[in-house]
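To illustrate the input format used throughout this study, we show a single complete record. The first block contains the structure-token representation of the backbone; no residue identities are included at this stage. The design step must infer an amino acid for every position from geometry alone.
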């Protein structure tokens, strides 16, 4: 799950380059009751454990936060994700490096497209729309900017 501007920008100097309450509310609705997985930079941008969600943070840095599961390598991350999936849905919330690392394991994407451009130093790779199908899209305008909330499903999902 992520929000991007028209250039694929998702972050600037460790923060979101924009503030749209509707996007934050959408994020909360989609992630509530799930395990959320993030990298260290995303953790620092958020700055706290989010209520109603189990947080997993992949970081090389020492980090101890009550109620937050911290992992320090990919093998540990994959193990924790597999364990959490037995308990509740898992959402990958960023950043770009973590999305790239876990993209093969994801079957559903929740993307907000902000139809404007902002300064950014972190970008998402362009979505390969040949591998995904858009199953839901809603739009709204906030602060004069159009936001598109999109749900995509992977086309090659294999049923167990």
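Output of the design step:
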């Amino acid at each position: 799950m992520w929000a991007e501007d028209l250039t694929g920008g998702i972050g600037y100097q460790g923060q979101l380059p924009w503030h749209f309450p509707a996007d934050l509310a959408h994020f909360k609705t989609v992630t509530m009751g799930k395990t959320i997985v993030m990298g260290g930079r995303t953790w620092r941008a958020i700055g706290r454990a989010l209520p109603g969600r189990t947080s997993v943070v992949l970081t090389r840095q020492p980090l101890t936060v009550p109620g937050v599961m911290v992992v320090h390598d990919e093998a540990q991350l994959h193990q924790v994700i597999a364990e959490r999936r037995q308990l509740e849905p898992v959402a990958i919330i960023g950043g770009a490096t973590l999305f790239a690392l876990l993209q093969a394991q994801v079957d559903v994407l929740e993307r907000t497209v902000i139809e404007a451009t902002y300064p950014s130093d972190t970008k998402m790779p362009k979505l390969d729309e040949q591998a995904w199908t858009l199953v839901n899209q809603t739009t709204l305008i906030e602060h004069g900017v159009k936001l598109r909330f999109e749900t995509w499903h992977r086309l090659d999902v294999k049923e167990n």
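Structural context for interpreting the output: The domain at 2-154 is CATH 3.40.430.10 (Dihydrofolate Reductase, subunit A). The helical segments are 21-31, 40-46, 74-85, 96-102.
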